[in-house]
Amino acid sequence: MMLCELLQAAEGVLLQGDIRTEITALCCDSRAAAPGALFVCLPGLHADGHDFAGQAVAAGAAGVVCEHPLPELPAGVPVIQVEHTRRALAKMAVCLYGEPARRMTMIGITGTKGKTTTAHLIAAVLQAAGRKAGLIGTNGARWPGHQVPLDHTTPESCDLQRLLRRMADDGCDACVMEVSSLGLKMDRVTGIFYDIGVFTNLSPDHIGPGEHASFAEYRAWKSVLFRRCAVGILNADDPHTGAVLDQHSCRVVTYGIGCPADWRAEAPFTLLRQPGLLGVEFTAAGPDGRPRGYRLPMPGRFSVYNALAALAVAGVLGLPDQAVHEGLTRAAVRGRVEPVPLDAPFTVVLDYAHNAAAAESLLHTLRDYHPARLVVLFGCGGGRSRLRRTGMGEICARLADFCILTEDNSRGEPLADILADIRAGMQRGNPATPYVEIPDRRQALYYALDHAEPGEIVAVIGKGHETTLQRGGETLPFDERKIIATYMKQKKP
Prior knowledge:
By secondary structure, the chain is α/β, with parallel strands linked by helices.
């Protein structure tokens, strides 16, 4: 594509260079710059892309998009100046990759908790109905025959549009994706109009430097999705749903438990606990009012909420009820209340819960299964808000019978400082809750397995689907499923 076409999409001004330059790719990381690529300078919290424009050109970049002039660049290099490079990047990506979202049914999911599970449930139902669906979110991007790791829940716009192009070219007729508040704020999804937008729930998260200035701003960015979709499916039980619908332009469909809603489940639910399985059976009715029974291989009340969102999506798309049942029954989500298959009289579950709200929801759910003892192994990430650490400590001390404190992506921050914040939160939650502190996470897992008793549930939280551990500036291989399975096999003799 010629630069003049991208210039028009970006609504920019050509400062220098040939407008007829051929552009074959977009990038915002100078390390990815290559001949034919247009490098876009994105300002960030710790670094500014404008400072790396020279490196991108030296690597062969065909041109640069910036917010202010860069006189140090060679005179022959095309340079486009725009008001907002992030927005321009998104618009150019849509143009360069030929608006791939228009070729698929686009389903976007936002909220604090449940996005990943809800996305997987919807994708499973679509596939059971014979649709070829792509999936983009925290667990990466995938579609039939492909699996791509991602650095962000919602990828940068150039990466996102390239993924959508690949999905569409491979025959996908639907894409289910998590739409984070930061993805909306940072223009990663600008240029995409969703057929369906889904709201799960809202609680304080991602508030701090480089994220959101306040909870009000966090909520406001979530609401943007419902001005960019045709149908909005929202949790009627969440107290923030009204605010999320502020200025909405979509048709609204609701779901809930025991309250007036278009899709409604009735409590109580039947809880299922078997070796390697924590599940739930429930009854729900749609707009026709006819109750139907459903089964999920995932536990608890919050799983029912996620399933209701999937039911509502299926209803809007007119998918057959048999496909809905099949999809929900077979769905599995890596790292989301995931039981580890073990030949043992206790249960180990892995979960991504890494803030107070997610931990509270998870531990309440596991309590409903009446374990002999509920043990939680957790830590908190370095370089993140201290409130997240104290909040995690408070919730775990209040809801668990025993806590194992350890590392969780400490990055470059001293682990002792992180653990001190967690202990302060535990004092606030329940100072009587017993705990042990084992800084090395592998040794902490071994301790948990060595001391687990019959009937207990051991919740290993914070990493979920992740298979690496960030410590001291290094990223180390660390797959908790494999570590647990290997250790239990060694213990068995």
